[in-house]
Each structure stands twice: as C-alpha cells, then as structure tokens.
Amino acid sequence: MEAKLFASLACARTRQPGVGRFDLVNGAYVLIGTSRQRPGSAAPMQADGLSYGDITIGDRYSGCPGCGADSFAQCGQCKRLACCNSGDRAFRCPSCGAGGQLEPGAIRLDGITAT
Ligand SMILES: [Zn+2]
Ligand SMILES: [Zn+2]
C-alpha cells in the first residue's frame, strides 16, 4: 500500500474541486487534509476495481477548504469523494449530481487510485 494517497475530494456546497490527502497509519488510511485543486492542475486519476479499504478522518483534519465540513462521503454512482458534515443525512454529489441518503459507517476507498 502507498504511504500517501491523493484523491479528488470536491466540495458538495461550492462544487470546487479539491484534493484530499490520506496517510497510511497502522495499516489504514486516514484523511489528513483537503486542499483546493490548483487551477490548471490535473485531478488525481481514478480507476475502477481498486480498493484501499476503510478510511477514517484524522484528529487534526481541518475540514473542507470550501465550506468547513468536517467529513466526507463517497458517491454511490460515480465513486468520487465529496465533503459532507458528519451530521448530514442527505448527500448530493457535486461531480455527477446524484443524490441520496448518507449511509453511516466506514467509507471505503473503492474505485480511487493513488497518484
Ligand atoms: Zn465543502
Ligand atoms: Zn457522483
């Protein structure tokens, strides 16, 4: 497993693209921070069929740079990541527009590949 992982993590409210950084801690990935994607830079690649297992939010995670949300979710349709608040019940994907109920539980980095 890669020691560090970067994946697209868009803001669900402002729809700004972002990049989430995940560090490998004790065999599991932890979300360390999200930063705005620089204009003109390429988004991290994504691919189907890869799984990076369960991930958690780091203690020092400072939140979404667009809206301050303290957590994130994975879209069930396009598999992209987007910010959400940990108390949110509903989710609307800023990447493909799919909406639905947020399902509690561990988030799995399925379909995300490292850069
Ligand atoms: Zn946000
Ligand atoms: Zn989506």
Question: Which characteristics define this entry?
Answer:
115 residues, mainly beta, 7-stranded mixed beta sheet, two-stranded antiparallel sheet, 0% helix, globular, binds zinc ion
Describe the structure.
This protein is mainly β. It has strands at 4-10, 18-25, 28-36, 46-57, 71-74, 81-84, 90-92, 99-101, 107-112. Strands 5-6-1-2-3-4-9 form a seven-stranded mixed sheet, with no helix packed on it. Strands 7-8 form a two-stranded antiparallel ribbon. It starts with a strand and ends with a strand. The model has no long low-confidence stretch (mean pLDDT 81). The site of one zinc ion has 8 residues, from loops. One zinc ion is lined by residues 75, 77-78, 80, 93, 95-96, 98.
Helix content: under 10%
The arrangement of helices and strands along the chain is: EEEEEEEEE
Unreliable stretches, pLDDT < 50, 5 or more residues? none
What percent of residues are in strands?
Answer: over 45%
- Helical region count? 0
N-to-C terminal Cα separation, in Å? 12 Å
Would you spell out the secondary-structure blueprint of this structure?
Blueprint: E1 4-10, E2 18-25, E3 28-36, E4 46-57, E5 71-74, E6 81-84, E7 90-92, E8 99-101, E9 107-112
Parallel strand pairs: 1-6, 3-4
Antiparallel strand pairs: 1-2, 2-3, 4-9, 5-6, 7-8
The structure holds zinc ion (ZN) (2 copies).
Concise summary:
The chain is an all-beta fold and 115 residues long. 0% of the residues lie in helices and 49% in strands. The chain contains no helices and nine strands.
